Amino acid sequence: MAESSKEEFIQLIKRFGAYLSVKMSNLVSISLLNADSRSIGAVAGLAVAIIFTWRLLRSPSPHQSRQPKRQAPNSSSSGASSHSNATLLPPGVCSTSEDSTAQNVIDEFFQPVKPTLGQVVRQKLSEGRKVTCRLLGVILEESSPEELQVKQATVRSSVLDVLLEITKFCDLYLMERVMDDESERKVLTALEDAGVFTSGGLVKDKILFCSTENGRSSFVRQLEPDWHIDSNPEIVSQLARFIKYQLHISPVRPERTAANVFCSPSLEQFFRSV
């Protein structure tokens, strides 16, 4: 390897090491979800190899003769000064444009990897394995049992992806207070039409109905979930000392009642705010 190439390699490693200390924190925060130390080391090694190869390809061949260019008589003094500065750069010293290009290569390589929705759901739920969730105002467009009596139930399309991701690794129970058997039928039909039962993680036996708000609270305490999701502030307050974590769904951000109670305008927004 030519002496100039060695010098370039040393300079590149120094710049890369300094830059890597800043960028690696962003990479590790995402990579730790699904990667170990060996894979992170492999990524760093691959980066060095790619950048060094790129630099070698950019370097001029040592066999190429450097013939001085004749300066045109009518060239401006500014042009001559620029040409002189470019040719007087000592070997092993990169120009500003080359430094900028190398920096751009490193920036592109270490762009933060956006986590998948499944990874975000697992992270947000702190690997909880059992979740209970009310239907009205969270999964359904309707917000009260009285609405179910006068019209068909409607599943919010924006919540489906999150709901299906939860069912992939959590034991999920959905529950609601209804006024009559017809309302119960409407809810089950809406969930089935939305494809909630086709993923394999949720079955109709895990859709629970009751006639009072206290009945829903009783369901949650009996099931002892890691997370409960509800839109009723009274239920959330009652369960705060019994359930490990709760998510309070409210369009208006309420005051946080306890350290283990989180708030969000919607279920999907809670899992997409990363």
Description of the structure:
- With 274 residues, the protein is α/β, with parallel strands linked by helices.
- It has eleven helices and six strands.
- The protein has helices at 3-31, 37-58, 77-87, 96-109, 117-124, 145-150, 160-169, 181-193, 213-223, 233-239, 267-272; strands spanning 130-134, 171-177, 207-210, 227-230, 245-249, 261-264.
- Strands 3-2-1-4-5-6 form a six-stranded parallel sheet, sandwiched between helices.
- The longest helix is centred in the N-terminal third of the chain and has 29 residues, at 3-31.
- The chain starts with a helix and ends with a helix.
Helix % is: 40-55%
- Average residue-wise pLDDT: 77
Question: What's the total number of strands?
Answer: 6
Q: What amount of the residues lies in strands?
A: 5-15%
SS-based class: alpha/beta
Biggest sheet strand line-up: 3-2-1-4-5-6
Number of helices: 11
Main beta sheet: 6 strands, parallel
Distance between the termini: 47 Å
Radius of gyration: 31 Å
Apparent shape: elongated
- Name the poorly predicted regions: 27-37, 75-87
List keywords for this structure.
274 residues; alpha/beta; six-stranded parallel β-sheet; 11 helices; 11% strand; elongated
